[in-house]
Known about the structure:
Blueprint: H1 2-20, H2 26-37, H3 43-50, H4 56-71, H5 77-84, H6 89-114, H7 124-142, H8 149-175, H9 187-197, H10 201-232
Amino acid sequence: MAINRSVGHQVSRQDSSLARFQPASVAESQLARVASDGCARHSWLNSLLESSGRHSGRDLADAVHLLCSLHGRYPGLIEIALQRCPTGPAQEWLSRASEGFERERLYLVRLTSAAGPLPSTPGAAETEASLVAARHALETLAMSERNGCALGAVTALVGDWWPIRRLLDRAAVRVGTELPAPSLLDEQSLMAVIEAGAANMSSARALAFGSEQLLLQHRALLDLLEARAEARGDF
């Protein structure tokens, strides 16, 4: 009996040890990816949130204008993905996500108008070329034939919009514009649709790819904003 109890304790300890190393679910991996590779970890976004210098208003206006160029157009990533999504839980979630993001889009458009003109910056043609390429990349993700890719991009957008929303609210306070309540779907629904949409390894890999590419575009946009601020200098 003592041996059996000892073996039982060893197995229990092994089970406990194995549990700590169990791979995260697809949804947990997606949230972790957004947290580690998304806007929240980018130094320039944090600089914009914390800046109070004489150029902070100009830099915030620049960020709002470029974000509007990327996400302020209709149809956007979510709407294109919804149009191509078959009937089912993912389509229902995308429909609700589209409704919520439309309100975010309207906020972004109004804020862009309130922020004033796009700050004059050297390299305007290069900026526009970068934005065109970014919009094309989002359309490509939304229209991907790989099952899970578009959903990965959309769920990454929704998750990564929270730090972007903080930036928009910071700009809104700066120009004296009303801050509407956020209208994005909650984390629980996000995790549920990811688990439903990544039913096998192939779709899980496609979902990861879609999210990585979306986050890459967001980081590239922040890199561009930082480069534009440096190009303007003190003028």
